[in-house]
Amino acid sequence: MKLNFCTLFNSNYLSRGLVMYQSLLKHCSNFHLYVYAFDDSCFEYLNSHNFEHLTVIPLKDFENNDLLRIKSQRTAGEYCWTCSSSTIHYSITKYNLNHCTYVDADLLFYSDPHVLIDEMRDNSVLITSHRYSQEYDQSSVSGKYCVQFITFKNSKEGMLVLNWWKNACIEWCYARVEDGKFGDQKYVDEFQSRFSGLCELNHLGGGIAPWNVQQYSFDSINGKISGTEIKTNRKFEVVFFHFHGLKYYEKNIVGLTGELYEINKSVRSIFYFPYISLLNNAKKTISEKIQNLDTNGNAGIAPYKPLNLFLLIRFYLSGVKHNMKNIFGQQLKSRIAHHHFFYNK
């Protein structure tokens, strides 16, 4: 079965989008990706390369009166969230697709996503849970489910859910908590109570992310990454990793993710550092065609430098000042585990 995907990004995410597409090329036997280019530079680059399994759609073709009406009322990020459901709807209706999966541009695939779509069987909508580690559970704010990978079939059931979600996002989609809503994501929590034909993804390899990676151990053998759920010893093949929160800063510093999450050395070496290398290579490739384009997104001045002796001493003294029990370095170990700033080599 041919898999249909759609995503959206601007030139600041162009390297991520390109790397994600290349990972699909490597691991997915039959697919097509519809990219909604959110600025002219992004459209021009993708359109000029005539990628075999990719169709790029400019904003002028995609934006309708409803979206244009509310665009000025949303931040750039909020507008992207507003548009996620509309890109799925446009892809299905414009190109007469039997299904479409929205994917975030900062995903990387490590094996064939067919195994995820196959779980739907006769259902019309596939949703993926955050699977938060207990200490990072943000379900009450961000929702149980993540928009990162969400599939709708072109069926009566599927389009009923999609149209409701699309209209809800146009009506309200902001980066704040209000009346049980948050962005486009908390709406997904309502799908199962409002509609039938829903399938919640069971495969643990679909949706590895900084908020749940603490629950697993990983091995990389001959290019294939396998995981084991520590609590149950359940084994699985990693299908995709969501590199949420990865940022490039000035002075050649990269932050892997938010400081909230603990990321161990194994996860950094298996997932993060190879991904950064792919992004750097993609940026070089893009710069050969379009120079002076910030394809990795400059997040400004980093809040911290990579670890050095001065910073370790600073963290240690801060911990001791907070509580004398930290004199033996307990808090220092925690700060190191949550410090994700490195020089981009």
Return the CATH topology of one domain. Answer: Spore Coat Polysaccharide Biosynthesis Protein SpsA, Chain A
The structural class is: alpha/beta
The number of strands is 16
Roughly how many Å is the radius of gyration? Answer: 21 Å
Arithmetic mean pLDDT: 95
CATH architecture of one domain: Alpha-Beta Complex
N/C terminus separation: 40 Å
Largest sheet: 7 strands, mixed
From the spread of the alpha carbons, the general shape counts as: globular
Label this structure with key terms.
single chain; 345 residues; alpha/beta; Spore Coat Polysaccharide Biosynthesis Protein SpsA, Chain A; 7-stranded mixed beta sheet; 3-stranded mixed beta sheet; 16 strands; 37% helix; globular
